[in-house]
Structures are given as C-alpha cells and as structure tokens.
Amino acid sequence: MKLGIKVNVGISQFIMGAFIICLLILSSFLGMNTPSLISDSIVRIGMQMIFVLAMLPTIQSGIGLNFGLPLGIICGLVGGLITVEFNMTGFSGLFTAILIGIPLAVVVGIFYGWLLNHMKGSEMTVGNYLNFSVVYLMCIGWMILPFKNGAIVWAMGEGVRSTITLDNNYQQILDNFLSFSIAGVRIPLGMLLFDIILCFLVWMFMTSKTGILMRCSGGNPVFGASLGINNDRMRILSTVISSVLGAVGIIVYSQSYGFYQLYTAPQMMAYPAIASILIGGATTHRATIINVLLGAVLYQSLLTIALPIASEILSNSSLSEILRTLVSNGIILYALTKMGGKKI
Amino acid sequence: MKADKFLAVLKSNAVTIFFIILCIFSTAFSGQSATFIVQELVSRLCRNSVLILSLLMPVLCGMGLNFSIVLGAAAGQIGLILITNWGIGGFTGMLICILIATIISVLFGIFSGFLFNKTVGQEMITGIIVGYFAKGFFDLIFLILAGTKIFPIGNPELLLAGGVGLKNTIVFGEGVRYVFDDVFKLSLINCLLYGVYITLAITIVVILIHKIKGNKWKDALIKSKTMIIVFSCFLICFLLVFLIPSLFTAGLRTDVPLFTVLLIAVVCLLNEFLCKTKLGQDIRTCGLDMQVASASGIKVGQTRIIATVISTIIAAWGQIIFLQNMGLVNTYTSHEQVGTYAVAALLVGGASIHKATIKQVFVGAVLFHLLFFTMPLAGFNLFNDSQIGEYFRVFVSYGVIAISLALHAWENLPKVKAKKKIKSDVVAN
C-alpha cells in the first residue's frame, strides 16, 4: 500500500501489451502506415484518459462503475456551448468552458450521489437508466435552450446543431500545444500533460486523509462507520469528483476531436471508459491510478490498432464497430462475474 | 384513518397514477379521433403483451427485471429470418419457426442464467450488458457471416448487394405476415359483448360450484370474487363503448385479432400453471430467500437458470407475434429495445423488482403504449415539433425505469435498516 498505489496488474495485462506490439509489427508487414496508427492511438488515449480517470473515485467509494458519467459530460457540454456562444477562442475559451462546467457538475454530482445513496445495491442499474433518461431530457433541452449564435443553432428550424465545429474557437488547442514529432509519430504533449496533471491531482487526493477515508469506507462501510466516517458523504464526494472529471473530460475530448457532439451522442460514452479501467486490471470495487493509466493505454491502442488491421485482413469496414461492441461489453461482463457477492 | 389509507394507496401506486394522468393529457392533446386511438391501442396491446409477460418468471425468482429478454427476441427473429429464407409460410412455417426459436432461446437462456448465477444481486445490470454484448454477436453473424459458407443464405433477396450480410429490413412473405392476426377477426364491440356473455356464464358456473360444495350463498359469492371482478370489467367496458357515440364507432371499426388474443391467454395460463407446479413453488422460494431454499434442498442455481430459460422462450414467442404483426423485421435493431420497453411497461403497471402480476402487465401495456404513440402527436400539437415528443417519450421510458427502481429502493430502505438492526441485536445478545 506504499504511496497508495497497490499494483494489481496481472499477467493478462502483459499478454495484452505483447499482443499490441505484435499487431504493430504485423501492421508494418501488411504495408499499413504504422507511425500514423501509433499517433492515432496516442491521441485517442489522451482523449479518453480523463473519462477513465472519472471511474476511479466511484469505484473507491464503493459505488462501483459509474454508468452515470454522461451526467457530468452534459455539464461540460453546456459549459462548452456557452463559450462558443460568446465566440471565445484560444486557451481563455477552453478554460472558461471548464470553469463553467465544473460548478454545474458539482451540483449534478451532489444530486446524483444523494440519489444513489438511497438505492445501495443497485447503483449501476439505476445509474445507467438515469443517464439514458437525462440524455434524452437534455435532447429536449438542446432544442429549447436560448442559444443565438449562428455557429450553434440550426440555420433553419429550432434548436442547437447536432455537431458544433470548433474550427474558429479552440480546435486541437491542447493537442497542438508543445506537440512534436518523432519518427513520424506525432505526440500531442499538451493534452497528455493535461491528463497527467489531472491524474496526479486525483492521486494526490486519494493519498490525502480524505481519500484514504473514502477508500476505507468504500472497502468496508461497516468498518468505516465504526471509525466515524460519514459513508454517505464520502459517496457523494466521489460522484462529485467523477462528474467534474466527466465535464472536464468532454471538453478535452471535444477540442481534440474538433466538434461538440450533442443530443444522443453522450449516451454511450461511459461504456468505453468502464471497459478501459476494467481492462487495466481494476475490479468493480478495487482500482488504482495505475489501472487507469494502463487501461486507457491498452484499451484505446488495442481498438485503434487492432481494428484497422482486422478490417484490412477481412476487408469489411463494419467489422470494427462490431468488434468494439463485443470487446467492451465482453470485458464489462467478465468483470461483473468476478464481482463476488453472494454465492449460490 | 380513511385519509391515511387513501394516501397509502396513492403512495404505493404513485407510478401508475402519474402515468394515468400523463396519458389523459397526452391523449387529449394528440388531437386524434377515438377510432384511431382505440385501433392503435388494440393492435399494440396484442403485439406487445407476450413480451411483457416474459418478464414475470425472473421477478418471481428474485432476479429482478430480466433485461436479457433481448436474447429471446433475437432468437425469435432468427427463426423468422430462417423460414423466410427457406420460403415456407403458413402454419407449418410458423410451427417450424417457433420450434427453432425455442431451441435457440433455451441455449441463450442457459447462457444468461449461468451469468446471472455468477452475478447474484447484480442481475439487472448484467442483463443490460448481456443485451449489448448479444447485439455485437448478432451483428457479427448477420452482417459478416450471413451469406458465406459458414451461414449460407440461399435467398439472394435477403442479402445486401455484395452477397454477404443481411439487408437492414427484411419483409416477410405472404405466409408469415399477419399469419396469426388474420385467422379470425371480430370487431371490438362484438368481442366485448361475447366477453360479457362468456364471463357471465363462467361466473355463474363458479358460484354454483361453490354453492354445491356446501358453502352459503354469501361465501360462494366471496370465493368467486375474481371472476365477478373480471365480469364487471367486461360489462363496464361494454357499456362505455355502447353508450359513448365516438367510442361506439371506434368499437365497430376496430378489429380484434382473436387468435392472437387466444395465444396471449395461453401464455398467461401457462404462466399461472407453472406457478402452481412444484417448479413454480421452488422458483417462488428462491425468490423469497435463497438460503432457505438451498437449506430445504432446492437446487437454487438450477432453478434460477430454468426461470431465465422460461423467460427467454416466452420472449422469443413474443417477438414472433410482434413481428408477424409488423410484417417486416429491422434485422439489426428490432430486438435492441425490446428489453427496455417491456421493462418500462411492466413498471408503469405498478410492478416492482420483487413483485409483478399479470394484471400489472396489462395495465402497464395499455398505459405505456397509449403514451408511446400519443406523445409525439401531442408534442407536435403543443410545440409544433414532433421531435420534442419523440425525445420526451424515450426520456419517459428510460426515466420510468430509473425512477421506479429508485422509488422501490426508497420504500425498502427502512425495512432493510430494521432487518439489519434486528440482526445486530441478535448478535449482541
């Protein structure tokens, strides 16, 4: 437990890593552009890292996998849209979006945590359906929110566009910041640094007194209560942190992607993040920052490298989407069966 | 005291009452004629009831709402696609289809039951993920393998232009479309009239049997309470339809597919019958307390798998009934939302994850599907935009699941706390 990092990385993670390296070698034999594959996967790792990180607090506080991550994501989207509405550009736009998103996410996180405290035992099911319903409620919201800027609203009809381009605002501003290339591989250092800083902050929090109390109450609520920890408050704190990370995550994701995706786009965004942290060696009630880093790297590079290769070999473009569904849901299923709980 | 009782009834039926109000509003604002609404409602009720009925067994077994009926629905689809491929229709075709679907759904049911046994206490989220996983699996089979040597499809009309992968929409042949619905149709008003006659006859017979058994008249009446309620329901419905002019026209113009109704009744009876057998009692015991069940010699794991298999099979039949009424199948999406909509409908009917009855199935089906098709119309009339109504109905169907799960967890919280307290007191003593 030194430094709060318990390395629960197993042999499977090493096998996966070796598999990815084999795939890279294979890709160069197939005549594909290996450096661009690596660049793609690094960008995707950077984009998804914060979502994966958002799973950590809720797992540690005993809530389990946070299927309600899109609640935080929507807060970030609102913040982002407000900056586009006022034509804010550059870093000031990016950070204003984050600063607007965070307080919203705090409020949403408190409400979400309070709700989850009333349904211990089925947090994941309720979180999942709460997420779906709020996404659709916000679909109505996007249609009636009073945005005026022509870049946001449809030219004809009512409501916000379904994708909003960030061309004129802060497209890839973090990616391009301090970015450099080695041997044809472009490394978006700014975005990676931002991710690492956030990971570091969360790690700092987890090793602080509050963080250790949270882990304690999550691991054994009865023991936590006997120590005088307010379990419910710890769980609310964890959903708040998770939602805030979701809000920040979507802004970083979108600046790299170049678009804000609205309407039903956030609905399924929790699943890749969940699969990532699980593939990194976490379980539904135990996770560390190492699992987050490893999971983001393994899952994203597996998908971005393996899928083009699979499509190349089988020459079928729809295969990659199918494999992605199978892989991510298969991992979640596997983790659920390893959850323990009552035995028959 | 009476006010307290009234409030308690209100509280325990909060979800249903909320939906009744919502239905009244959205029907009023939809601006449609009574004929249209009654026709839609009858056809949707016939289409969806069996799918919702399939959820009952796992609830009884204490596994909560079985979201993995998606697998059963997919099995039904596979059966239909296969008979369309072979070009057989009619009742022989449907029998073969049902047979194939049943065999496949037994396998699927064993698979998901096995997973549920590994994830006791988290069956619902497991069911949801199994559904998503299965979607990937079916896409793999139908999009990548169909038409190749592994899974040959002889009928080129079903395949995409490239010769591999099924088309997005497969239209069934004449022998499959409406095959159950067209057997025997009767207008709604006649159905209600015959319903009144038949239930009256049955009620009298039941009362007489009780009387002959040596009960007093009063006891005989009390003992046949259920039949009397069913009879009065039919009578009230008939009178309403007969006396209100707009409903009268609707009743004349609406055709009820009696054979489909018969199939639904058979599934209901099958469910009731299973509950009364030894197996049903075992399932019920597992649902009450797994430790007690295993202590009394019931193989809990096996019983839970059987309950899942039954649910999956009924879902497969439900999907076949659903699709023969639609006349076509969206190969990649038809089964996707089956679980969510069925669960939402059941919950709207007032069911919880611990208790669900056949009555709740039908109440839920009526309310949920009434809302389901009036909402976009009402949205269009109110906001001049049907998209808002569309979003609102999806929001409602997901929201009702989240909210009613939350409400039930809330109600049970004091009980759980009390139970824990008793346990700790016992330990302390």
Helix content estimate of chain B: over 70%
Greatest chain-chain contact: A-B, 44 and 47 residues
Poorly predicted sequence stretches spanning 5 or more consecutive residues of chain B: none
According to CATH, the fold-level topology of chain A is ABC transporter involved in vitamin B12 uptake, BtuC
Instruction: Give the low-confidence spans of chain A.
Output: 1-6
**Mean of residue pLDDT values of chain B:** 84
Shape of chain B: globular
- Largest beta-sheet details of chain B: 2 strands, antiparallel
Q: Based on the coordinates given, report the CATH architecture of chain A.
A: Orthogonal Bundle
H/I helix tally of chain B: 18
Distance between the termini of chain A: 32 Å
Overall structural domain count of chain A = 1
- Across the major sheet of chain A, the strand order is 1-4
Q: Give the strand order of the largest sheet of chain B, numbering strands 1, 2, ... along the chain.
A: 1-4
What spatial form of chain A do the alpha-carbon principal axes imply?
globular
Strand element count of chain B: 4
Helix and strand pattern of chain B: HHHHHHHEEHHHHEHHHHEHHH
How would you explain this protein's 3D organization?
The complex is a heterodimer of chains A (344) and B (429). Chain A has 344 residues and is mostly helical. Chain A has one domain (2-336): ABC transporter involved in vitamin B12 uptake, BtuC (Orthogonal Bundle). Chain A is built from 13 helices and four strands. In chain A, the strands form two sheets. A two-stranded antiparallel ribbon of chain A has the order 1-4. In chain A, a hairpin with a 2-residue loop joins strand 2 (180-182) and strand 3. The radius of gyration of chain A is 20 Å and the shape is globular. Chain B has 429 residues and is mostly helical. Chain B has 18 helices and four strands. Chain B has a two-stranded antiparallel ribbon. Chain B has a two-stranded antiparallel sheet with strand order 2-3. The longest helix of chain B is centred in the C-terminal third of the chain and has 43 residues, at 386-428. The mean pLDDT of chain B is 84. Classes of the chains: A mainly alpha (344), B mainly alpha (429). Chains A and B meet through helix 5 and helix 13 of A and helix 6, helix 7, helix 15 and helix 18 of B.
